Amino acid sequence: MRHRKKGRKLNRTASHRRATLRNLATSLFRHGRIETTTAKAKELRPYAERLITLAKRGDLHARRLVATKIQDRNVLGSLFEDIGPRFSERPGGYTRILKLGHRKGDAAEMSLVELVD
Fold it and tell me: Taking the model in full, what pTM does it have?
């Protein structure tokens, strides 16, 4: 039984899973929308929304906390200067997951993750 076992393993080690989420979040903040598998999208949503909530705070400590997750300085800057203030009035729910169907090669269920306008 999986009682109180939060999160998906995504068939990766812990460090690989952490790196995958960091890369997905960086791509999401860089491009505004990304296409990925549904399982990864569902794991990415709370991860990215926590980072956006920290970016809304905008103080130095929040910036340093986010900088441990987002390694790209340009993306970090745009997160705090563009994305954070854009969602300043919104209490949560910054991302949207749209299901796209199945991938041709392996029939994995695909989704589009995008930042809400």
Answer: 0.94
